[in-house]
Amino acid sequence: xxxxxISICVPAYNEEENIEKILAALLIQKTKRISINKIVVVSSxxxxxxxxxxxxxxxxxxxxxLHKQKAREGKAAAINAFLxxxxxxxxxxxxxxxxxxxxxxxxxxxxxxxxxxIGMTGGAPFPVNDPNTFLGYVIHAWWWFHRNIPxxxxxxxxxxxxxxxTHATAVDEAFIQAKIIQNNLKVVxxxxxxxxxxxxxxxxxxxxxxxxxxxxxVRLHQKENVKIDNMTKxxxxxxxxxxxxxxxxxxxxxxxxxLIEVYAQALGWYDMKISKTNPFIWDTxxxxxxxxxxxxxxxxxx
Length: 302
Hints:
The chain is an alpha/beta fold. The chain has a single domain, classed as Spore Coat Polysaccharide Biosynthesis Protein SpsA, Chain A (Alpha-Beta Complex), CATH 3.90.550. The chain is built from 9 helices and 8 strands. It has an 8-stranded mixed β-sheet, sandwiched between helices. Helix 2 links the parallel strand 2 (34-44) and strand 3 (64-69). The two termini are 27 Å apart. The model is unreliable at 293-302 (pLDDT under 50).
């Protein structure tokens, strides 16, 4: 069976803490039905060591390409820059502050290779945060919730049928999902396409993230008529009755997480309706970077 060529986009802005780790993990992916053609890091006017670190990889593996943007224009603009550089039938978008397992890309693309009716797949983020702390518990609950709805984030693959996406979206995965569905293709969740990510380690970063996402979802509904409910009766039932809660402390933590979400939604509503803010170029949540302190090994690099 001939392998299907794919390319991977890693949008990056000041990702020196994790860029070596994600590239190292992408270079050792085990593949059977796909072939990784290009790994394009789109650096949006990074001011730290991101570009220098990526260039070290470029010199050792020709599949890695650094595309530098002079100005920071947002993640959607980075994806559009990537789409101009590749013509593979399948493309993958992976957040720069994640780390894939050795078979993540193969598992993510497998449904697209096997079923022409499937147009997009989403992977399964698992946070590295300590679940024995309040925010760590909330982060784990939130990503469990997203995996079980399911809702996509951190890594997706889709058929390369979109020339570009709107530059003014803060929820690129949801926008792409809407466009794929409009093309009468199915969207599926792949629970064994696992990436590690790191949730916010302080309340300010968590609220900042959820505030932006809610704003982006409201705009998606307005522009594309795609409604994404962030807190409904069914979602509350899923969290309160399906999520494993071991004791009263965890129930209290989960309730606190729900209150944080409600507060963040109120702020997102204010941004949308009152201040008319569109956060498609957003402030970095610094506490979500540097997944592991240990540096990766580069012995595998040719």
